[in-house]
Each structure stands twice: as C-alpha cells, then as structure tokens.
Amino acid sequence: MNSYTGKVLHVDVSTQQTQVQEVSPEFLRKYVGGVGLATRLVYDNTPKGCDPLGPENALCFACSVFAGTTVPAGTKHSVASKSPLTGFIGDSLSGSHFSEMLRHAGWDGIVIKGQAPKWIVLFIDDDDVRFLDAEKFLGMGTTETQRAIRKALGDENIRVSAIGPGGEKLVRYATIDNDGRQAGRTGNGAVMGSKRIKAIAIRGTHPITVADPEGLLRETLKLIQVSQGPGTQKYRILGTPTNVLNMNKMGTLPTRNFRETVFEHAEQVSGEYMHDHYTQKAVGCSGCSIACEQWAEVREGKYKGAIAGLDYESLFALGPNCGIGSLPPIIRLAELCDELGIDTMSAGVVVSWAMECYERGILSKEECDGLEPNFGNDDAAVALVQKIARREGIGNLLADGVKRASEKVGKGSDHFAMHSKGMEMPGYDVRGMKTFAMGLAVGTRGPCHNRSLAYEADVKGTVDRFKAEPGRGKIARDKEDTAAVLDCLVLCKFIRNCLDNFYEDVARLYTMTTGLPMTAAEIQQAGERACTLKKAFNIREGWTKADDWLPGRVLGDPLPSGPGKGVYVKPEELRMMIDDYYQARGWTPDGLIPKDKLVALGLEDIAEDVGVEVAAQVAPLGTAAGA
Amino acid sequence: MAMIGYQHIICDPTKCIGCRICEYACSLTKTNAFDPGLSRIRVVRIEPITMTAVSCRLCEDAPCIIACPRKALTRSEKNGIILVDNDKCDGCGWCVEACDFGAIILNPATKRAEICNLCEDQADGPRCVKYCPKEALALSTPEVIRQQARREVVARLFEELLVEK
Questions:
Q1: Measured between alpha carbons, how far is residue A516 from residues A34, A63, A539 in Å?
Q2: Residue range(s) defining the domain that contains residue B152
C-alpha cells in the first residue's frame, strides 16, 4: 500500500494517553480519505447524543489521498466532529501543508478526545506525541500562534493548525487555521477549544511513496497544464470574487441580510474592482496549481494595512449582506475573522441579522452595547466581530449563531435568521435558484454550496432556476455525490473542470497513487457512501424531516427586485423537491435510510443503528442506484 | 564570448504562488518518493504574501567549495554545478553554513551533502521548472536576467509615457 500509512492516531488529552489504530486497505478504499474517513472516525468514536463541546466528542482529522504529491489541488485535509452549531455532522475541509505533514508523520488520520486540564499545544513529532503548555499562546491570533509555535519549537518546517480567541471562547462557528487557510463553517474550532487545545503542531519525516511515480508525474503534468486553461480561468484571474457581479446580475446576491438581492454598490465590491485596486497576490494552497486565493491589501485610509485572502463567500457575507459597499472595511473584517478564528460567512450573516434587528427596533442601542449597527455601518460591524470572538456583551449572544440568537431574542426575528440546521446560509439567494434551494435544505452539515454543488444546474441554465419540478432531486443527488468524491479524495472543487471523464480520471489517479484497485463505479459509490454515512450520523443524533428546511424569508418574502422580482420558494415546492431528492437517494418518504440501502453500500455495520425496515412496495430496491 | 555566470534555477517571486509543487517534483525525481525535506529547491513563505523558491545559485566564487575542509566539493566544468564527492564528504555541514541561500541539504540517511544538479541527468531539464504551474521558475543566467530586466523596464517606461500623452 502506498500513500496511505494504514494508521490512525488516537489521542486522549484528558489522560494524555495515545493509541494506534491499524486500518486495513479495504477500510481505506471504502472511506477513501478526507471527509469520508473523518466522518467514519467521528461515527465510530463519538457516543450517541454526546455534547459537542464535551470531552466525548471526537475531533477527527483525515488526510487527502494525494497529500504531498504532485496531484494538483490534492493536498487538503478534513476535520470533522459533532458540530456545536448544528448538533449534526460537522465536516470541514482546508487546503493545507498540514495535511501533507500529517502524512509525513505517518498518519492517515487523528482522533482526539477528552479535555485537557490546562491549555495545551499537541505536538505530533512523527510517532512521538507531546502535550506542551500553551499558556503563553492564549489570546493570540491564528497566524501569530503558528509563527510563535514554530519559533518555540525551533523548526520552520513544522506545520501548525491553530485556533484563535474565537475558538478559545467556544464561538459556535470558530475555525481552525493553517497557513492562512481555515477549516470553517461548522465550529470545529470550538470543539478544539473545548478540549483546551490551542494548536496542533506536526513534524513528519517519512517519505510519501506512490505506486506508480513516473505514471503519476506524467498524469499530473498534464493536469497542471490543463489547470492553466479555460476550466479555471475565473479562479486564476479574479478568484471567486468574480461571482459578485454575476450574482448581482442574476439577482441572487444576498444584500442586507437577504432582504434584497441586487446591491447598488456591487461594482465597488466586485472581483474586478478588487483586482484593479487592492489585490496584491494570488496564493495557492499546498500543491495547488490554480491559486484562486486573492490577497487584497488596503494601502490608505482608515483601514490602511488591512490584508486578507478574500473569497467570494467572505466578501458577500461581510460586504453586501451587511450593506457595506466598499472593499477596505470588508478586507479588514475578513482579516479580523481569520485572525480571531471565526467563520467569515457565519460572522457576516450573524452581524447582518443583528443589523436588521437593530433597524427594526428588536435590539436597542443599549442591547447593542451602545453601538448603532445600521446596515452599512462598518465601524459597528468591526466592533461586533471583535465582541463575538471574545464573547463580550452582545457578542456573547451572537457567538451562538443566528438560530440560537433569534430563539433568545424572539419578536419574530427567526423569520429572517438566515440559517438551516443552525448553520448560516452561503452567498446565494436561493429564491432565484430553486434546485439549489432544495440542495441547501437537505445538506447534512447544514446549507453548504460546497457540499451541494446543485447551484451548477441553476447557474448554467440547464434548468429553469425559477421553477420547482420533479427531477431536481436526481440532479441534486448526482452533484452531491460528485462533491463527496472530491471531498473524500480530497481534490479541490476548482480542479473538477480540468478532468475529461471525472470518475474514470480520479479512479485512475487513486490507483496510481495508492496501488489499490479502484473503478469509476466504485469511486462514485464511495461518494454516495460518504453522503449516506453523514446522513446516518445525523439520524443517529436525532435528525427528523423537519430539519431539512429553509428560513422563513426564503419561503415567504418575494424577491423585491431584480430578474426574479416577486418569486420565492413556496413551502409546497420545497416539500415536493425534497421528497423527490429522498426518492432519488433511495430513502423513505421520511428521509430515513432503508437497511437494505445501507447494506448495499457496505455500511451493514451501522444498518441496525440507523436503518429502517421497508416493505418492498414502498421503496423498491435499487431506486437510487438505478435511477 | 565568455559565459558570465552559470545557468541556475531562478524564481520570480511575483509569479510564485507558494504551492510547493517544485519541492514535490524535485524530491520524487531525486529519491523516487515525495519527501520535501530532501528537495533541493525549497519554497519560503513569510506570511502573509511574501514567497519565493530557493535553490543553488552556482555562485562564481562558491563559498561552499571554499568552506569544505575535505575538498569534497568541486565545480563541474561542463555546466558549473557543484559536485559532491561522496567518498570525501563526511557530512560536517560547513558547506551548509557557508551557503547564503540555505540551498544545501545534509541527507540524514546518507549523511552526505546534496545540492541541485539542474537535473542534468534528465533529458528535458530541471523537473522543478517543468512542473512549476505559473512559470515562476526558469533556468537562467545573471546576464540573461539583466537583459530581460532592461527590456522590461524600457517597455514599461514607454508605455507609461504614451499613456501620459
């Protein structure tokens, strides 16, 4: 076996005990790596019903199959645990040198449980695990922490994943940062903080071997060259902020807490404007030939010196969605979120919710600690982000996300609390993207553009995006499976358009790397298995059909302007599409997984836990596989 | 015309994205495994956005050759690369200390110094250059670099002059 090490490191930070779990090639072939492997580790090591911020929750890291190889955009890792934001599976991804180092240290994954009595840095030095005092790093920002730990350990080659003050304070959407990239969204930073781990430092010295070095070099050279072509142009030139004007034109750019979808200052916060006035450098993740991350710097004015790698999702959330129409404060806000270690998207949507509450008189100036957070008030947004990360004043309310905050505040504020399953919405107003609306509603980690990919159908116009109709379930299922294959391997989504025959190509790369057999059909099934396993975890943790739903604003407020003026997602439309999706997946009308389905996917060992018996006539066998 | 300076790997920091594919390709070429610790080219990133790759610059009066107490390092007459005589090298590391660029490795397994040899054994030249996705790496000489530099600066100046008109 190549690439894989066949070993998972188990660490209990309460007792400082470690254990080595040997994993078989068959197990690895099944869960692949990344999100698939990390989810399986969470499923196996987290007791049912555990407190996400308690010692029993297992914080699991899993390497990419291609980590540290020349497969472009293939060096990433997944972090997963039971999410403190949603209570369901919280699987994150990050592009990273960390993933490569984890593999060099001899591990396919790490499982961390317990709660350290005092704050620690977990130092994994090949197979030597040390628990270092972290006192002097507390309160530090994420980049500063990584730098300080490398310095303290006296080795620049050490790779560090660190939390910021947000993770220390258990902000429910805290991130884990490595080399300026973040494992974000579902609050894995808070889980790490709950274990009192300020950072994980890794030094690995084992070479990574691959089954067919010359073959892999040949294939990857081709891929590196193709990845400089039209398939990645939008990512390479302007980065994802190119979406601002596209979304604005489509009338799907979330503006002022999703109240509007066309932003009057879109030009000034566009990818084009950023490129001409603020972008300093494109940076690639480890082993990435594309380099989508555009680092923008403010060189004058109030926000002089602010610098951040700015993606579309951060930009929409902290900019238009907060009514902020110029780039300097957005760059500052993104920098703050990254350094404080909180998710830019959730932070933006939380701040915009507070702004709407303030403008409606639901939150008073006093309740906002004397701030006047009207839409567009960048000073207030900066202050709120800082308060959130430290849980000061109103920040304590907002640090729990819009779902919990709106439940506490009441007064109808849940109608415009833009979340599903407790996780804040991404940067697409799905009233004008109905396939994607359903794709977000059924997301296992909450509404996620990256896990769903169903927006492709709406954006490319292969379907009528304003219309809900049967058949969208199958589209969403297929896109989700493709996304899951990428998330397990791990390959970045942005390289997907460089592959001619997706499943064949990735299966071949898999075999060249690991030496393990893999067919196109098998890797596709691995994607379905990963999606199903994540759903199975959620079912075990109490998921019901009611959890697959969207916020009131999407389901009741017609779009006020733009090409989709007047449209919204009618609840019965959403219901119909969700039912269609369950059917496409071969699940029951209640969204549960038949035992037979689990067995067919090789998940027989969890069939008893979560599977349901289904009479053959209700859900014919093979509905999903054959559909 | 006598050659001024030897060809070596140069990196344009404005093009380098810090991906480290050069390290992966180099180590695979030299060791048949991915092992950046043994890559003869290394990427340096100073957060957040300063980054470039560094390898042997084939210095004219190479300090490594001068520093070696056992005369294990010599210059190839063919292409100027620094050759390591493994029978003489004892892994003392003076060459590593003498190098201003941190371009020399002490291989922990063989306990011998290793230096970029421009992949002289590869038919199509240095692997790092070939695999660099952004063409940040190139095989060049100081003379060629200064030729390019003055062409670029003149072109830019005249472009600006024309715009101002």
A1: 17, 17, 32
A2: 8-55+116-164
Asked if the structure places residue B28 within a domain, the reply is yes
Ordered domains of chain A (ranges, CATH): 7-203 (3.60.9.10), 227-424 (1.10.569.10), 430-626 (1.10.599.10)
CATH number at residue B136: 3.30.70
- State phi, psi for A270 to the nearest 5 degrees: -80, 165
Contacts of A350 (CB under 8 A, 6+ apart): A173, A388, A398, A401, A402, A405, A424
- Compute the nearest-CA separation of A548 from chain B (Å): 38
**CA pair distance A204, B35, nearest whole angstrom:** 10
pLDDT tens figures, B96-127: 999 999 999 999 999 999 999 999 999 999 99
Chain A residues close to B124, C-beta within 8 Å = none
The pTM is what?
Answer: 0.96
Look at residue B154 and tell me if it is in a domain: yes
> What is the number of domains present in chain B?
1
Of the residues A289, A294, A494, the best mutation for testing chain B's interface (the one with the most B CB atoms within 10 Å of its CB) is A289
d(CA A93, CA A90): 10
Q: In the predicted model, is pLDDT for residue A582 greater than 60?
A: yes
Is B103 part of any domain?
no
B1 to chain A, any CB pair closer than 8 A? The answer is no
Is residue B15 in some structural domain? yes
> Which pLDDT tens digit goes with each residue over A21-57?
999 999 999 999 999 999 999 999 999 999 999 999 9
In 3D space, the residue among B28, B35, B19 whose CA is nearest the CA of residue B119 turns out to be: B28
Q: Is the Cβ pair A224, B17 closer than 8 Å?
A: no
How much is the average pLDDT of B147-152? 92
- pLDDT at residue A519 is higher than 80: yes
